[in-house]
Amino acid sequence: MQNRLRPHQKLMAEINMVPFTDVVLVLLVIFMVTTPFLFQGAFQVKLPKVAAPSPTLPETVTLTITQGDKIYVNDVETTIDNLPAYLHTVMVKKPNALVMINADKNVSHGTVAGVMSKAYQAGVSKMGIAVEIGGDEKKN
Fold first, then answer.
1. Please, how many CA atoms are within 13 Å of residue 24, restricted to the half-sphere of its CB?
2. pTM above 0.70?
3. Whole-number Å distance between alpha carbons of 127 and 62
């Protein structure tokens, strides 16, 4: 009896594409707006200064790079080409020493990376980069 009172409805066999298209377009706009921020590589990075107590360090070998790209190992000047051999002789005397790199803030990242590469060639396994503790962040 209920079938007679209720009109027979046809089943809808197709999808309404309008809401689907709206959602896809909104997602497309979101991705178009956010993608440049994900792959942006030309922005400036200011590294913070460390506001922590001085750590107690093990026996260290100091590797200093000055603004004129002069290199010193424990206050003895050497060249980039002689660095692996000289550093190897120092590390033979102090095999468990930590090599601490003191680079001037105006020395290029490429120069520091090159010195680190030469240190690894000399057999250095423990290396650190010295930073200034405390101080005013606004100073350059």
1. 5
2. no
3. 10
